[in-house]
Amino acid sequence: xxxxxxxxxxxxxxxxxxxxxxxxxxxxxxxxxxxxxxxxxxxxxxxxxxxxxxxxxxxxxxxxxxxxxxxxxxxxxxxxxxxxxxxxxxxxxxxxxxxxxxxxxxxxxxxxxxxxxxxxxxxxxxxxxxxxxxxxxxxxxxxxxxxxxxxxxxxxxxxxxxxxxxxxxxxxxxxxxxxxxxxxxxxxxxxxxxxxxxxxxxxxxxxxxxxxxxxxxxxxxxxxxxxxxxxxxxxxxxxxxxxxxxxxxxxxxxxxxxxxxxxxxxxxxxxxxxxxxxxxxxxxxxxxxxxxxxxxxxxxxxxxxxxxxxxxxxxxxxxxxxxxxxxxxxxxxxxxxxxxxxxxxxxxxxxxxxxxxxxxxxxxxxxxxxxxxxxxxxxxxxxxxxxxxxxxxxxxxxxxxxxxxxxxxxxxxxxxxxxxxxxxxxxxxxxxxxxxxxxxxxxxxxxxxxxxxxxxxxxxxxxxxxxxxxxxxxxxxxxxxxxxxxxx
Length: 488
What we know:
mainly alpha, two-stranded antiparallel sheet, two-stranded antiparallel ribbon, Ammonium transporter fold
């Protein structure tokens, strides 16, 4: 059936391509949004479902699937404008729906930011519709919650998770996003977080560790033996995550310009460097390279470059890759075993090391290596890292203060949210569900390897009753082998 023509008066009121819209910027931003979305769905979903023990594959995937959907609805109902709307408090915006047609088809708005480039005044106001910006920022919010989930896989009550996602998004994530990106006090003060080293990675790492503490540990048998159920599938998910990061950092300038190109190149350079350094350390200390270790090195490189991807030169990206492939390796393989607090908290995928530690490292290194000319392309005020002299030392101190705020807020807010949920819903699954896994929690199994209706019995179906587990030397990335959790 033919589509009825739009009335002329309405066409004039709502042009498809208004004068302010730049088709190139608009197309790139929607592409970047899709790339970031793919990092979660299916990237992290595949990684989580394949890196855990097979009895938790379905539950881990479902936690990602639910979070992606729940965050989107909460985002458009109230949370987007809490993070990027009008100021309510110095660290929080006024919540309101981002659903009205008049609001969404108008020009996207970001905190006022004008600066000088080659003697000309440049504005960072995007040249595309608000709907594009709302979705782009949603993908960042969603991946933050999903990264957090990695700390509590294999034992958090799914109903508690369903309640936790919207509450944490509203009372924790939006605060960091507004403070650093939405025009809040840290943004006004000049703390740099180019694409989420603090807002996303430090937040998810600290909140994940906090949640793991309150939810409690996995079963002893799961902690001692937690092998990935499909390493090759895990690599496929890791590949989606790596390639999607071009949209993650390339979309941060809100335009398809020079900073985007620099950010994408630096992102891949840092990831590759970190992966190689991590792998070399595995060979030196464990005698063989590990595929899981290589993925961890990839991840820490991507996380470390994120806070300064478009602001540092490519030689600095290599330095950041070297440090992100070695410092988190040390905290995970050595310090983790010596720290009694970390030993007490069962962070399933070691999100604290790969995201909190590495995100903090990246933020501090950005305070050192932020290059003045590159900073002029995207930042509202003249900025330089400490390496470049001048007031760079002050910038480094600002980076420390910004990190401390994000750490403190996530520690406190996550604790309050979980304690409030615990009044109504147990945070941890019942013991019988923990023993069986997916079949008990969802009535579904990832692999139909035995008869219909048969409950999971680790003595018959798992690694514990298999001679295979006795013949294979334990991986350094399996919890208990060297005091290290499988992590990402």
